[in-house]
């Protein structure tokens, strides 16, 4: 076979000839590139203006400018989601959606416990409201015989019942959050817990939960006591304007104070139940978890409280309206007071029965989110979820995974 001076066979194509046609291209559709012309370069373009040959803007290779990933791009696999949340750091939508799934996946346990808690909280305020409605009707029907004592008595009952209800709510919601957190800890893996099992798992931590409630009560009440003493001292001077100004400033300052400590210690019930910590240690643990993400946690909790308030008001409004109208139709009778109290209790119970678990679920999922972000806890959850999927069931030992010793990063 004859050879050229360069040593190549006359029938062998030169080393830089056009590449062969693609096997996936229809015959006749392959563009013919003249010999010596770089592949991908328009015919007639000088060699020194050769077009770029690597991926990037202005090249014939993907990704093209303004388009998405090129051919062969593989998106990251979705996070494992064996239960109510994906096992990765959570977004706001994940937290809200996971809370709804918590209620739907364990309706008997969650709603049953919440209904019992809501009933306990609703009774004092319903009794107070019924008494106020009845007193208002009597005052309106015979205003000439109304005394100052009647007015002060009505106000005392109204605000006293509200304060009692708030105190009961503070205790009950904290305990309920602890019990529901136990249900949530299993629901993350797709498991369910009965009401009796949830109570059995959480009852050993009730004392520590009451300790958290007591410490939180001290933190919240001490500024109020100081304020009352200050107001009494200012009132003795007779300066009404000074008293009003001090009251307004205190309300603003106390609101910020309440939000700060409520956010800082929002994860204390979860730390008590899931990590087995004592009251002080649990509050310290909550403070550490919130550090570094305070504003995000506060924003989600505020949004939750607003949503809870709206939903609770909407659900309770028909029963409150019916109780008010029934009380207006027959003031002063025992039957009217009983029916009004019953209607108001039903309204508050229904509203709180749905809102309490929502608030507790958001706090519990935020606790899980902060552990995933701060301690790489999602790796622990993913490993456990894979093993549970291999076994085909969620073992009760999954509750032990929440202990801080299992964190991937301390």
From TrEMBL:
Q: Which domain of life is it from?
A: Bacteria
The UniProt regions of compositional bias labelled Pro residues, in chain numbering, are: 12-22, 54-66
- Keywords linked to the UniProt accession: Membrane, Transmembrane, Transmembrane helix
A Pfam match is: DUF7847
Disordered, as annotated region: 1-78
Q: Where is the DUF7847 domain?
A: 91-350
Its transmembrane ranges are 110-133, 163-185, 206-234, 240-260, 294-319, 325-348
Biased composition range(s): Low complexity? 23-53
Name-wise, this protein is DUF7847 domain-containing protein
Q: Which organism is it from?
A: Nonomuraea aridisoli
């Amino acid at each position: 076979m004859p050879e050229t001076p360069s040593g190549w066979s006359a029938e062998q194509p030169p080393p830089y000839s056009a590449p062969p046609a693609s096997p996936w291209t229809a015959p006749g559709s392959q563009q013919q590139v003249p010999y010596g012309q770089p592949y991908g370069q328009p015919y007639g373009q000088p060699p020194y203006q050769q077009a770029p040959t690597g991926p990037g803007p202005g090249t014939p290779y993907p990704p093209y400018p303004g388009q998405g990933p090129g051919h062969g791009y593989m998106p990251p696999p979705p996070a494992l989601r064996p239960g109510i949340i994906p096992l990765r750091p959570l977004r706001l939508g994940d937290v809200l959606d996971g809370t709804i799934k918590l209620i739907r996946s364990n309706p008997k346990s969650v709603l049953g416990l919440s209904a019992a808690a809501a009933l306990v909280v609703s009774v004092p305020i319903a009794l107070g409201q019924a008494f106020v409605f009845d007193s208002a009707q009597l005052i309106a029907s015979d205003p000439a015989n109304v005394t100052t004592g009647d007015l002060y008595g009505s106000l005392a009952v109204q605000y006293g019942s509200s304060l009692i209800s708030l105190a009961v709510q503070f205790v009950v919601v904290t305990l309920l959050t602890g019990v529901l957190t136990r249900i949530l800890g299993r629901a993350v893996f797709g498991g369910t817990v009965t009401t009796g099992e949830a109570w059995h798992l959480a009852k050993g931590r009730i004392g520590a939960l009451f300790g958290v409630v007591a410490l939180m009560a001290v933190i919240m009440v001490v500024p109020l006591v100081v304020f009352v003493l200050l107001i009494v001292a200012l009132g003795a001077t007779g300066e009404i304007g000074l008293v009003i100004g001090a009251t307004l400033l205190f309300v603003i300052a106390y609101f910020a104070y309440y939000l700060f400590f409520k956010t800082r210690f929002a994860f204390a019930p979860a730390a008590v139940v899931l990590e087995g910590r004592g009251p002080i240690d649990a509050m310290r643990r909550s403070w550490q978890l919130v550090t570094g993400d305070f504003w995000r946690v506060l924003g989600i909790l505020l949004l939750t409280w607003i949503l809870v308030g709206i939903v609770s008001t909407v659900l309770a409004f028909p029963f409150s309206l019916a109780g008010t109208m029934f009380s207006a139709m027959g003031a002063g009778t025992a039957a009217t007071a009983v029916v009004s109290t019953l209607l108001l209790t039903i309204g508050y119970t229904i509203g709180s029965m749905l809102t309490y678990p929502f608030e507790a679920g958001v706090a519990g999922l935020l606790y899980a989110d902060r552990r995933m972000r701060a301690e790489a806890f999602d790796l622990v959850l993913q490993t456990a979820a894979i093993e549970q999927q291999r076994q085909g069931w969620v073992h009760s030992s999954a509750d032990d995974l929440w202990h801080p010793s299992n964190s991937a990063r301390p």
